[in-house]
Amino acid sequence: MLDFGVIVANFKFLVVQGLFGLGGFAGGTLRLAIPAIVLGFVLGIFVGLARLARSRFVSLPATLYVEFFRGVPLVMVIFWIWFIIPQLLRLPIPEYGVALTAFVIFEAAYFGEIIRAGIQSVPRGQVEAATAVGLTSAQTMRFVVLPQAIRNMVPALVTQMIVLFKDTSLASIIGYVDLTKAAQIVNNREIKPFELYLFIAVVYFVLTYSMSLFARRFERRLAS
Amino acid sequence: MSYQFKWSVLWSGQSGGWLLQGVATTLAISGLAWILAAALGILAGAARTVPWRPLRIAGTFYVEFFRNVPLLVWMFFWYFGVPPLLPRGVQHWLFNHSAEFWAGMFALGVYHGARMSEVIRSGINSIPRTQFEASVAMGLTTFQAYRLIIVPIALRLIVPPATNESLNLLKNSSVALTISVAELTFQTRQVETYTAKAIEALTAGTLIYLVLCVSIAWVMARVERRFAIPGLIARGG
Predict the structure, then answer these.
(1) Rg (Cα) of chain B, in Å, rounded?
(2) Residue B129 has pLDDT above 50, yes or no
(3) Is the CB of A160 inside 8 Å of chain B's CB atoms?
(4) A–B: how many Cβ contacts below 8 A?
(5) Residue B167 in contact with residue B221, Cβ under 8 Å?
(6) Of A73, A83, A204, the CB nearest to B70
(7) Nearest by CB to B81, which of A79, A180, A193?
(8) Domain range holding A148?
(9) Which of A108, A178, B17, B77 is deepest in the core (most CB within 10 A)?
């Protein structure tokens, strides 16, 4: 009854179009996930540093930003961007732009928390010692705090990147042709849901699990 | 901007009732899935720490496979993929008893069970190994040691991360809208479709989620204080 031939027959569409985004549709899981991870991380650095700022005018908005987005489902944020941006800009933007904006804004809150926790994990004495030997506060951040903070952050950062990678499947809700949507499209024609969804589950698993194995080796190298 | 705000759409007509139904469904699916996730999480989390290899491997396989695949894919898998393989009678029963709700609940529970087990495992690993050795030396079997000593202590240690994970479960229940479970996000979109007032509908849905999350976090903070083990320093969330 099970027929895995359907995977072979549609392999090119599923992987080349759905995963890499090369083909007739402007889609692709990786084409969405990689920029989303990079931009989300960069925005997250600003959010994390802003939360630690001495001025309340900087730290309070950053705190509200983080608490707000951590209390709302990502699906909701995607719908917000989907409806609001065309209203504001008065022009329709493609699903890719909607999805990327939603992911970057949403994930920056989570990345920001990781970066804040990483910086706070550096003992206070380190900063005091660096100041005592005459480093400016920018030098202290760059040469003393950040190198130690980043080492402490790596496990949480990788976990969050994996979460974000999996979350990109939600872009299929607004019609973006990623791996999940590609499987749906093929399934509408072939009606082989068990085989197709199990196959993409395995593809996601292989990618995320190799990310976490790579991260574990990287951590060991940092620790030694 | 030409957008005309009309907040009254939220309480006139059917909108209010829809949103309330959405909240009820979100709470029902999250509550049931949470029970399933907690049960699976405790079992798998404990299985990965026992001194018996086959059980550890089974636990690891479950956890790594289920938490490394997007929840959305699991929703489709359990809703579209699995029912056709079930016996006729079961299929009929399921599709007459809101199959999408049960498939969504199952997907949510099994996925979060894998994530919950990581929290529980880290709790178990933070208990000194001597606790286990002492209970075995007292004559408890491994199962008794876990049931009476290790798991109860671990559960009291992990309240803050488990709260976080439970809130993730609640928020992730919104993914069930893809298999047309009429939960809060689904109803928000329904209000938006019927009234053509996107900002009002989304604001209402977003605020309800925030209120739910904040109140659960508040309750759990009290639970944490109630069950904190005296003598151990409370660790920041």
Answers:
(1) 21
(2) yes
(3) no
(4) 113
(5) no
(6) A204
(7) A193
(8) 5-223
(9) A178
- End-to-end, the C-alpha distance of chain A in Å comes to 52
In this complex, which of B76, B172, B214 lies closest to A193 when CB atoms are compared? B76
pLDDT in tens, A85-116: 887 788 888 889 999 999 999 999 999 999 99
- In chain B, the residue whose alpha carbon lies closest to the alpha carbon of A174 is B178
- Answer whether A209 sits within 8 Å of B64, measured CB to CB: yes
Domain holding A192: CATH number? Answer: 1.10.3720.10
pTM: 0.89
Contacts A190 to B, Cβ<8 Å: none
Contact B178 A83 (CB under 8 A): no
The matching CATH number, chosen from 1.10.3720.10, 2.30.30.20, 3.30.565.10, 1.10.287.1080, for B13-226 is 1.10.3720.10
